[in-house]
Amino acid sequence: MLRRLVVLFTFALSVFAAEDWGPAQFLVGHWTGGGSGQPGQGSGSFSFTPDLQGSILVRKSFAEYPPANGKPGFRHDDLLILFRENGSLKAIYFDSEQHVIRYSVSAVDNGVTFVSDGLATAPRFRFTYTSTGKDALKLKFDIAPPGKDFATYIEGAASRDK
Questions:
Q1: Average pLDDT across the chain, whole number
Q2: 1-37, pLDDT tens digit by residue?
Q3: pTM, full prediction
Q4: How far is 11 from 81, CA to CA, in rounded Å?
Q5: How many whole angstroms separate alpha carbon 101 and alpha carbon 65?
Q6: How far apart are CA 92 and CA 65, in angstroms?
Q7: Closest-CA residue to 104 (of 53, 16, 113)
């Protein structure tokens, strides 16, 4: 009987630990929002949902940009997988433009930031989510060309779907 309790308790702890995403926990859910930046004014939605029995957090996202200034409208889709590796949060990103980006993830004031790994000779990327309330957040995507500082590419806000 004691052995069963120990096994059950150990299992419960592992499930709880697997679903505690630390600084990224506030992102779990479905979100809708909009923003602006170099691609133009856009809107879209994203979700962060646990998968593989809570061992990963999956973000599926899309943004739609209407035609503007003589440019055709377009849609951007992406997938990001957040995972733990050697006690640190990491992520890998894929999108409909065939980009693959690996990120290190860390806490920032009221949020979390994803900073791309890679060579100093390649562009760097930084994605920051900041909680602005229980069901609201701001997001910012920055790009740094090789040897240069980050500059904002897109800024936006989103609210949790109810």
A1: 88
A2: 545 533 334 444 334 444 789 999 999 999 999 999 8
A3: 0.84
A4: 24
A5: 22
A6: 24
A7: 113
CA distance 77 to 70: 22
Q: Which domains does the chain have, with CATH numbers?
A: 2-160 (2.40.128.20)
CA distances to 82, 96, 99, 147 from 73, in Å: 30, 15, 20, 32
Distances (CA, A) of 124 to 58, 63, 67, 94, 151: 22, 21, 28, 15, 10
Q: Which residue is listed with tokens 């894929």? A: 94
135: tokens are: 């069901």
At residue 22, φ and ψ (nearest 5 deg) are: 50, -125
Residue 42, amino acid:
G
Contact by Cβ (8 Å): 13, 37: no
Question: How does DSSP classify residue 27?
Answer: G
pLDDT digits (tens, 9 = 90+) for 140-149: 999 999 999 9
> How far is Cα 111 from Cα 91, in angstroms, rounded to an integer?
16
Long-range contacts, 58-67 (Cβ 8 Å, 24+) = 58/82, 59/27, 63/35, 65/39, 65/40, 65/41, 66/40, 66/41, 66/42
